[in-house]
Every structure is written in structure tokens, then in C-alpha cells.
Amino acid sequence: MRLGVLDRGHRLRARLAIRVVPRVMGTALDDVALTSLYRPGLFGRPWLALVRQVMLGPSGWTRGERELLAAFVSYRNRCRYCVGIHTGTATILLGRPITSGLFDRWRSPDSGLTPRILTAFALLEGIGQDPAHIPETAVERAMAEGLSEDDIVDVLAVSFLFDLINRLADAFGYSFGDEQGRLAEAAALVRIAYKVPAVLLR
Amino acid sequence: MTEPLAARKYAGAISALRHAILETPGITLPATRRMAEAGIPTGTLADPWLDLVRNASPRLTDGHVDELRAAGIVDDEILELTLAASFGEAARRLRRGLDAVADTSDAVDSQIEER
Fold it and tell me: What is the pLDDT of residues A149-186, one digit of tens each?
């Protein structure tokens, strides 16, 4: 990563975890985890609490659908790292191949995406920063197509998480290395479900 | 306009994250981080970097970090200000969406009351 403190600045207990995890998990801690473990009171502790609530908490969206939404937001933000990881997690959790190519042609009839996901993608596109899009229109359309207010707020919460972490990934130079590294990090993320031992976040 | 009820379920966790990023003691002053969050110039040499973080983060390179270091800005300062700017931009986008939900819900409620 571009900031040395995020690679080598951790406290002793975090350094030990960083050393042990690859032996236990079969893959090194990813760059989001390394950022979270550095000065956890500044970012990691509240960040991971929010991530677990949004990505795993009660919602009308399945865990796999939320990973897919995360990948779509990251694609729109052009964040290579997060697109790579979250297309990987969505692939595992949805049981079908999810690639960034899907996001180029998500409106096509053969995308295989459910009507609810198509509505959520249109919503995310509609509330984007492009002045040509009027957010109220996008919300009205999403509600008319069957999304509840709760569904929409949950989509916005996923978008919030990735609007934030995409910027950190770009700024700090997050990387998964090669394709094997990407798949390993995605599989580990699905397995640990954004959980980090509390002792490391104190 | 009223806040969508559903938004409340994340409000506490988002508020805790904001407080941590802006108020945790660090190298930079909370006031400076609040400016970075709000998207206004901090008066530091990191301002061009923070502008890119908000508006064009995929364009950030190793060279930008080298420039910050050459200007005497240390890693923890970059970290704290980048967290604040990133949070601020994500929060502005969230607000735009939540306002649209609230406006739409208010309009629907008014139509129901008129009937």
C-alpha cells in the first residue's frame, strides 16, 4: 500500500495476527483489514460494525445480492480493487459467475438479473452525481416497481459503504495481486463474513 | 421533509463512524478534518489530493503520495484527512438519496391524505 503505516505501523497484537492469519486462513489479510487494524479507534472498529450491519444484518436483500450491489457501486466508481473482490464474493454467494462485463450490459434481456436487482441498479444509477439524473424520479420509479422504503434505504447504505471504501482503495493503492489472490481474498471474505476478533480492534 | 424511518437503523453506526474519523485524537486537528469532510479547503498542502479523493479517486497515483511526503506531510496526516474527505463525499451522496426517499414518501402521503 502507498502508506507505510498501513503495512507496517500496527501495534504488536495486530502484527501477530497479520503474521498468523495466512497460516490459518490460507491467505494474507486483505488491505481493508490492514487499514482497519491500524489505529482501530480511528476507523476500523466503527467501520466494521457498520459493514456487518449493512452487509449481513436484517434486510430484504440477500447477502449475495448485497455483494452484487457492492460490486455495481464499485464499478460505477471505477474502483478496480473493490470490483475485483466483490464480483468474487457475489459469484460465490449467488452461485453464478459475476464479472464486471455484466455491469456493461446489465440492461440487456440476457443479463440473468432479477427484476429487483435491475430496479436497484437503475436506482443507483439514478441517484448518482450526474446532474442529468433526478434522484426523486429514480426513487419514485423504484417504488413503483415494487421496492419498499426499507429496500431503498438498504441499497443506499450499501452505496454509502462503497462510495467511502472505493476512495480509500484508490487513494491508498489497495491490491489483491494476481487473479489467484483475488479469488483467495474473496473466498476468505465470504468465510469470515467481515468478522475480526474484537481484541484486535480495541 | 422527514427522514425516512428505515434510515434510522443505520444512523447510529454511521454517526459513530463519523465521530471516530473526525474526533479521535491524531496528528491533525478535528477542525481540519471537519473541513476535509465538508469539502472545503483545509488550508494545508493536502488540498489538491483531497479534491482528487472526493472527485476523481481512480486517478490517484504513487506520485501524488510522493508529492505529499515531499511537502512534509506524514502518513498519519494523509490517512486522517483522506478518511474525512472520503466519509464526507460518501455522506453527501447518501444524503442525496435519503432526501429523495423522504420527498417521494412525503408526496405519496400527501396524495393519500387528499383522497
Answer: 999 999 999 999 999 999 999 999 999 999 999 999 99
A42 CB neighbours in chain B (<8 A) are 20-21, 24, 26, 79-80, 83
Q: Are A85 and A176 in contact, with CB atoms under 8 Å apart?
A: yes
* Residue-level length of chain A: 202
Contact A5 B75 (CB under 8 A): yes
Say whether residue A136 is in contact with chain B using an 8 A CB cutoff: yes
Give which of B50, B101, B110, B111 to mutate to test A binding, by max A Cβ within 10 Å: B101
DSSP code at position A110: G
Instruction: Give how far A171 is from chain B: nearest CA, Å.
Output: 6
With 0.80 as the threshold, say if the pTM is over it: yes
Between CA A85 and CA A199 the distance in angstroms is 26
Cell of A36: 482497519
Rounded to a whole number, what is the distance in Å from the CA of B60 to chain A's nearest CA?
6
Specify the higher pLDDT residue, A60 or A129.
Answer: A60
Residue among B19, B75, B97 whose CB faces A156 most closely: B97
Own/partner long-range contacts of B37-43 (Cβ < 8 Å, ≥24 apart): B37/B84, B37/B85, B37/B87, B37/B88, B37/B91, B38/B88, B39/B85, B39/B88, B39/B89, B39/B92, B42/B81
DSSP state letters, A141-192: HHHHTT--HHHHHHHHHHHHHHHHHHHHHHHHT----SHHHHHHHHHHHHHH
- Per residue in B18-72, pLDDT (tens digit) is 999 999 999 999 999 999 999 999 999 999 999 999 999 999 999 999 999 999 9
